Amino acid sequence: MKQTAFTAIHRRLGGKLIEFGGYEMPVQYSGIIEEHRCVRNAVGVFDVSHMGEFFVRGADALALIQKITVNDASKLTPGKAQYSAMCKPDGGIVDDLLVYRYADHYMLVVNASNIQKDFEWVRSNAHGMNVDVTDRSDEISLLAIQGPKAIETLQKLTAVNLSEIPYYSFVEGKLAGETMTISRTGYTGEPGFELYFTSDPAIGERIWNEIFAVGASNGIKPVGLGARDTLRLEMGFCLYGNDIDETTNPLEAGLGWITKLDKGEFNGRDVLQKAKAEGLKRRLVGFSLNEAKAFPRHGYGISVDGSNIGTVTSGTISPTLEKGIGMGYVPAQYAQAGSKIEIQIRNSAAGADVVKIPFLKK
Q1: Mean pLDDT across the chain
Q2: What is the rounded distance in angstroms from the CA atom of residue 258 to the CA atom of residue 250?
Q3: Contact of 191 with 231, CB cutoff 8 Å
Q4: Confidence at residue 292, expressed as pLDDT on a 0 to 100 scale
Q5: pLDDT for the residue numbered 293
Q6: Pick from 254, 150, 131, 250: which is nearest to 192 by CA?
Q7: What is the pLDDT of residue 202?
Q8: pTM value?
Q9: How far is CA 34 from CA 25, 201, 221, 274, in A?
Q10: In this structure, is the dihedral angle defined by the CA atoms of residues 346, 352, 356 and 361, taken in order, positive or negative?
Q11: What's the CA gap between 53 and 198, in Å, rounded?
Q12: What confidence score (pLDDT) does residue 199 get?
């Protein structure tokens, strides 16, 4: 398994390490619920250095990104980022990603488990173009500092006015004495930043320690992948490999808002236009369980009147709402909020309501 610049720190802090996306990553430290609530109420730090970073340069850089992604990257100006997805010609999702626009190049941030697959996909689509694509994933560390006290915490370490950085924007500046990309993005629904900097372990440890020193008065905690999953699910954010993959398309996954069918040609556009015109046959929905302590999990069946209609893609007990929530694909006729469904939990059917996403209104 690969390690990040912070693996030794995770071990010292007693983090429970697991394999994730080919990396040795902490799933929890003090406990998922405690870490989750820390991010919702104060500030938490995630090591997300397992994510992949590709740099795209050259005269055809924008043309390549427009071809492989569903969002409209031509709208990006330097210092802006956007959430997007890459599709196959049949509309299936290769990966979801972030696209960053710098002054003279772009950065694509992809999921850890897809780094090799994505890099080969991007390069294959670049054939014949005047473009250079470089995988710099191993050169970059990435920390996500998330929570209502994130700005207050990080502001102590930088002269950059963090409160002036709009959502999905970024600056290149110094924080904790190190030049880095400071990005107003995140996967939790809380205010926060993602920091991209060198993967040198000595520099990483110093930055980690300085962030925790200034955040101590705000109750800062390290947060693992377990709470990252419950936080994103409360916001209805998709997880690749669970809620979206090459068998799902962005329209049925509720990602129509990033799918710009009028921007011009891109991979899968014709199929997606046809699917929209004909009407989607299934949709990814959120559901809330009616029974206390009923725990929906990935892979559980979804039924109506005892007949199976779908499968749970993500599920948990929400630490904030204190009830079972989840997502799954159901036929379009059951996708309206208020529809009654059942979740097959072991040998029983637990009643649930289809609800509007996000589960947690921010």
Answers
A1: 97
A2: 8
A3: no
A4: 80
A5: 83
A6: 150
A7: 98
A8: 0.97
A9: 18, 27, 9, 46
A10: negative
A11: 12
A12: 98
Q: How far apart are CA 28 and CA 36, in angstroms?
A: 10
Q: Which amino acid makes up residue 284?
A: L
Nearest by Cα to 190 from 218, 231, 236: 231
Q: What is the pLDDT of residue 331?
A: 98
Residue type (1 letter), 193: F
Cβ neighbours for 209, distance < 8 A, ≥ 6 positions apart: none
Q: Is 55 helix (H, G, I), strand (E, B) or coil?
A: strand
How do strand 106-110 and strand 170-175 relate by DSSP bridges? unpaired
For residue 182, give the amino acid letter. I
- 209-238 tens-digit pLDDT: 999 999 999 999 999 999 999 999 999 999
For residue 341 the two structure tokens come to: 């469904």
Rounded Cα–Cα distance for residues 22 and 44 (Å): 24
Token pair for residue 291?
A: 């029974």
Q: Which residues of the chain have pLDDT under 70?
A: none
Task: Tell me the domains of the chain and their CATH numbers.
Answer: 7-49+138-233 (3.30.1360.120), 281-362 (2.40.30.110)
Q: Residue 40: what pLDDT?
A: 98
**What is the pLDDT at residue 251?**
98
Q: How many CB atoms lie within 10 A of CB 198?
A: 16
d(CA 146, CA 313): 25
Q: What's the confidence (pLDDT) of residue 99?
A: 99
Say how far apart CA 348 and CA 350 lie, in whole Å.
6
For residue 243 the two structure tokens come to 């809620």
Q: Which residues contact 213 (CB under 8 A, 6 or more apart)?
A: none
Distance CA 187, CA 358 (A): 13
